[in-house]
Write a structure and sequence with these properties.
By secondary structure, chain A is mainly alpha-helical. Chain A is built from 8 helices and 2 strands; from the N terminus they run H-H-H-H-H-H-H-E-E-H.
């Protein structure tokens, strides 16, 4: 696959949210606004790129029997690094995303890419794969966040265009499932054409 | 006693782990297409969440906190959970082969179920308020009850949803809604119903 293909496949062909349907928990929980979705996507991308790089480096020497535990420890290490960095430099973002930062450890996208791509490809390609899938995930989360923010609070990236409240249900739990469901329908329709 | 009751109602209905907290959505979607597998998975999750919460609570209290290693929580907890799932698998195989047969394929999947890690981390880092009481950290008894009730809530949501999905398999769904999209929309409506419980505790 070409280098550009590695980066762009995350948006459509292998979109982690709408095609592979992975990492649903953070997708639903953190997309209450466009900004939150964007931040969660970037945080996941950080872990994804670094874990892909390290796993592609160590994969040849890791015995097959223990490869999953080893990969999880690598991922957990980068999640801890991310947690400490965020606590130090962007404490309020860390506060909003809360539990879902440590939960990147069990995000199937990260372990999935390690298993499916990083362990059998070169360091450079693995890094590009991390960037591509990470960007795809970030884009999906931002789109869901934008839709929920417009419907739920009548604003976009915090800029309010109506007075009063929107349809509050879209900021709360049911809206997350509904918006994701309908966006998947839309994605299916567009992909078929 | 009243407090335990509040914890149970709040964890099962008001703050349902799937429908309000979005934890464990992947397996929820993955194994809920048949009622029998949904029940099996619920049983396995119930067992592991409760056990994992008690063990990680004790490890945090008697090991990580005294040694000042709380920043290692994420790594330590995921390793404990992975090891625990392995041990449960081995023990079950010896003690109750029939239960092992029933839960068999679901056990290894649970390691990557974020509900387990999520509840374990929540219990040791978050302050809880139930009813009119003051916000406080849970003690071991409360944590155990909270974990058990939360996982029962997981089972309830999963079994209810599996029942609906079995019905839905018979009905005529538009082409682009087929499969997961219609499932997500159904869960959305279910979550709206559960929103009706908010405010009762």
């Amino acid at each position: 696959m070409s280098k550009i293909g590695l980066i762009t496949k995350g948006f459509l062909k292998e979109n982690p949210t709408f095609v592979l349907v992975l990492g649903m928990c953070p997708t639903l929980a953190t997309t209450t606004s466009a900004m939150n979705g964007l931040e969660m996507g970037l945080a996941t991308m950080f872990v994804l790129i670094l874990s892909n790089i390290v796993i592609s480096l160590i994969a040849p020497v890791v015995p097959d029997k223990v490869h999953i535990p080893v990969y999880i420890v690598v991922i957990a290490t980068f999640v801890t690094v991310l947690q400490l960095l965020m606590q130090a430099y962007v404490p309020d973002v860390y506060e909003t995303l809360g539990l879902f930062i440590p939960l990147i450890v069990v995000n199937c996208i990260v372990l999935g890419r390690a298993e499916a791509f990083a362990c059998k490809n070169s360091v450079g390609d693995s890094a590009l794969d991390g960037i591509g899938i990470g960007l795809g995930f970030t884009a999906s989360l931002t789109v869901i966040g934008i839709v929920r923010e417009i419907l739920g609070s009548g604003s976009i990236f915090g800029w309010k265009f109506i007075t009063g409240d929107g349809v509050l249900a879209f900021v709360m739990a049911p809206g997350a499932f509904l918006v994701l469901g309908y966006l998947m329908v839309l994605f299916n329709k567009l992909a078929k054409r | 006693m009243a407090e335990y009751l509040l914890i149970i109602v709040s964890a099962i209905f008001v703050n349902n782990i799937v429908l309000a907290q979005f934890l464990g959505v992947c397996p929820f979607m993955g194994v809920s297409s048949k009622l029998s597998t949904a029940t099996g998975m619920s049983g396995a999750v119930c067992f592991v969440i409760t056990l994992a919460t008690v063990v990680t609570y004790l490890i945090n209290k008697f090991f990580l906190v005294p040694l000042g290693l709380t920043f290692l929580q994420t790594i330590a907890f995921i390793l404990v959970i992975a090891a625990l799932v392995q041990i449960v698998e081995i023990v079950l195989k010896k003690i109750s082969p029939s239960l092992y047969q029933a839960l068999g394929i679901f056990l290894p999947l649970i390691t990557t179920n974020c509900a387990v890690l999520g509840v374990a981390i929540n219990v040791v880092t978050k302050q809880f308020t139930f009813g009119g009481g003051a916000a406080h950290m849970l003690n071991l008894g409360e944590a155990t009850v909270y974990a058990l009730a939360t996982s029962l809530g997981y089972g309830l949501a999963m079994v209810l949803f599996a029942g609906m999905r079995e019905q839905m398999a018979q009905s005529d769904v538009p082409e682009s809604f087929k499969g997961l999209p219609i499932a997500f929309i159904t869960v959305g409506i279910m979550a709206m119903a559960f929103l009706g419980f908010s405010g009762i505790v």
